[in-house]
Amino acid sequence: MASFFFFAVGMIVAGRWQDKAGPKKVALFGGVLLAVGCFLAGLLYKTVGGLVFAYGVLGGLGVGFAYVTPIATCIKWFPDMRGTITGLAVFGFGAGTLIFGPLISKLVISSGIANAFFAVGVIMLVGVCGSGAMFRSRRRYKPAGWNPPTPSPPRRPSRLDPERDHRERPVLDSVAHLLIRRGGRSDDHRAGRSDRGRSRQAR
Q1: Which of 59, 66, 68 minimizes the C-alpha distance to 117?
Q2: What's the CA gap between 138 and 72, in Å, rounded?
Q3: Residue 151 burial by CB count (10 A; 0-12/13-18/19+): exposed, middle or buried?
């Protein structure tokens, strides 16, 4: 649970930081933090507190820093494909479990828990920092032939346009219409009863 919490915290902090300092520094810091967490977990895995601090706190923060930075960077490089590029980045992150899950299991069986943490730390240090070193920020980039969508200002209905008011308030108008019709029927019914009563008196 600690790793998930600090993973979310790391994403929030990294998102704000990379807007100011650029994606490279944030990604490198995340890779180092994740590797340090794995190395310490290999040393402190026999105690619950040490494992929570090393893998949960440090590792969770490192993953958060390393996760949000490439997504934000890809969106800036492909502003016309925000949904597609975000889906591909998240897919790559999730697909990594298909590789590292069996790999870590084999490392634990063959080398032990401590050596498995050490190996993962080396892989994260090389992979995350190596990838982060290639990140380049691209602000206000606009691909050729693409214009960012401009939000249209909200249009307030005019009181002088009853047809438009009726289209934008169909439920209220329907209810009002039913009430008016019901009231009119009641008035007609009362008027009919009054006329019949007068005709009887005249007789």
Answers
A1: 59
A2: 10
A3: exposed
At 131 the pLDDT is 86
Q: How far is the C-alpha of 38 from the C-alpha of 14, rounded, in Å?
A: 20
Residue type at 182 in one-letter notation = R
Residue 102: predicted pLDDT: 87
Tokens encoding 47: 């105690």
The answer as to CATH 3.30.70.1350 being correct for domain 2-132 is no
Decide: 55 and 46 in contact? Cβ < 8 Å: no
CA distances from 92 to 15, 20, 45 (A): 19, 26, 28
pLDDT digit string, tens, across residues 115-142:
999 998 999 899 888 888 888 877 766 7
Which DSSP symbol is given to 47? S
Model-level pTM?
0.64
If you average pLDDT over residues 83-94, what whole number do you get? 84
The type of residue at 30 is G
Q: In the chain, which residue ranges form alpha helices assigned H by DSSP?
A: 2-21, 23-44, 48-51, 59-77, 82-111, 113-132, 162-168, 170-202
